[in-house]
């Protein structure tokens, strides 16, 4: 397994991470035994970074990972956890709470569900408009001192928030969406992270499966968040799948899959970037692992750029109401 350093102060991690969200119902039903087998296969392949959120399936995802890690030496897995998103019993969302007291409460439950005594990277999932980022990061820093957390991360925040957070405590990484068709990070956020020595864990590298090469218009199932995602709507989806066809031509020339090409493109954007792949099954995991063997020349990168130019995708990455809550997107709001 290749490794990358996660920021100047962060841990050394595998060059790919496993994003576990899809194992807990966000994309429709998933198979518990297959999910656990996929986590084990990832660890066996040397993928040590497991990414979750305490609100994925209201604790389901953490309990699942806890079960998978039961007989695994603790140091074999690096666990990254997002907190702060509030849920209700009907599966709804109720905003964010990152007050210090709330954070400690979330963390206590997370440690219990995962069955571990520390979290490798702990991060607020979104900026809480009611709580200064300094307060949240300062409180997590206390948890670092107490030994419950090893490193502090951020998620989906913009340049100003990143600077304010880093002034309080070293930040290991920013987790943010980054893919061939979601490149907002390139307009200042990436530069700020590099200046401050903060790594990037990139999620949505296949844009929720849209550019995986496996998606067709009949793929959405009940309970699948993609049913309301703008890029998957009628009108947009045909345009976006045409981009995938352009990528497929390049992938075939290189004898790799579309997904492998898309993951390799993200990894090629810098040694400080670690793509998170949301595989829920061993076959998709194997495919993602193959991306590590794809090397992209300057010509390849130019061909990919020509096939999928920077603002080529139709539709935003989230519905308007959710976009409004993203601190990372504030710079683009006109």
From TrEMBL:
SUPFAM superfamilies per the UniProt record, alphabetical: NAD(P)-linked oxidoreductase (SSF51430)
Ranges of residues in domain NADP-dependent oxidoreductase: 16-307
Entry keyword set: Oxidoreductase
InterPro entries the record matches: Aldo-Keto_reductase (IPR050791), NAD(P)_OxRdtase_dom_sf (IPR036812), NADP_OxRdtase_dom (IPR023210)
Residue ranges that the Swiss-Prot or TrEMBL entry lists as coiled coil: none
Keyword Oxidoreductase applies: yes
Protein's recorded name: Aryl-alcohol dehydrogenase-like predicted oxidoreductase
